[in-house]
Amino acid sequence: GQQLNQSPQSMFIQEGEDVSMNCTSSSIFNTWLWYKQDPGEGPVLLIALYKAGELTSNGRLTAQFGITRKDSFLNISASIPSDVGIYFCAVLYGNKLVFGAGTILRVKS
Amino acid sequence: GAVVSQHPSRVICKSGTSVKIECRSLDFQATTMFWYRQFPKQSLMLMATSNEGSKATYEQGVEKDKFLINHASLTLSTLTVTSAHPEDSSFYICSVAGGPSHEQYFGPGTRLTVT
C-alpha cells in the first residue's frame, strides 16, 4: 500500500520554540492533510492542502504542499503546552485517507 | 465540521464474546463512514468503508465476518467485534464523510480491552 514517511518521530521542545515536521512520499498526491490527536481522542483536522505549492495558515500553524506533490511540512510557531499531542500527515488515496506514522510533540514549560 | 460521537468510550470484555461499537453523526448526514483501528504508539489503519444502505468495503487483511459493520441510516454506523480475542484490543475510531472524502470528521474513539 501507499506509505508516507513522517519525521521526526518525536520532539521535546521548550515552550516558545518553533516546531517543524514533514512528510514525504514516493508517489504524487493531490490532497495533503494535517491532523492532531490528543491522548485518548480522535484526530482533529488542522489544515488541508489542495494545490501544489500552496502555503496555508491556521493561527500559529502553517503548512505547505510541496511543489512536486510528494511532500508537505507543518510548522508551529511559538509553541505552548497545549500543542502537546501527536501530529499526523495524511493524503487522499482514492476515496481513502492514508496516514503517516505521526510525530509526538512534547513541550517543556 | 461534523460532530461525531462514539459509544461506548471504553469497554472491557471477555475473550470469545462480541462487542458492538456505535458511531453517530450528530449534525450531519453521513453517506459514508470509515472505521479505523489504532494500536498503541501507531498510526490509524483503515479497516473498512461503510456506505449507507449497502455492504461495507473491507481493507485487505480485515476479516469481514469478524468485524461486522452495519450502516443502516445516515447518522449511525455500528462495528461489532465478534468472538473477540486479546489481540483485538485496540483503539477503534470512526469518521464520517458527507462530501469529498477528505472532509473526514473523527469520533472520539472507543478503547476495547479483551481479557
The 3D shape of chain B can be described as globular
Q: Please give the alpha-carbon distance between the first and last residues of chain A.
A: 40 Å
Number of helical runs of chain A?
A: 0
If you average the pLDDT of chain A, what whole number results?
Answer: 94
Poorly predicted runs of 5 or more residues of chain A: none
Order of helices and strands of chain B: EEEEEEEEEEE
Shape, per Cα inertia axes of chain A: globular
Task: Enumerate the spans of chain B where pLDDT stays under 50 for 5 or more consecutive residues.
Answer: none
- Largest β-sheet summary of chain A: 6 strands, mixed
N to C succession of SSEs of chain A: EEEEEEEEEEE
How far is the first residue's CA from the last residue's CA of chain B?
Answer: 36 Å
Number of helices of chain B: 0
Into which percentage range does the β-strand content of chain B fall?
A: over 45%
Oligomer: heterodimer
* Protein structure class of chain A: mainly beta
Structural class of chain B: mainly beta
Mean pLDDT of chain B: 91
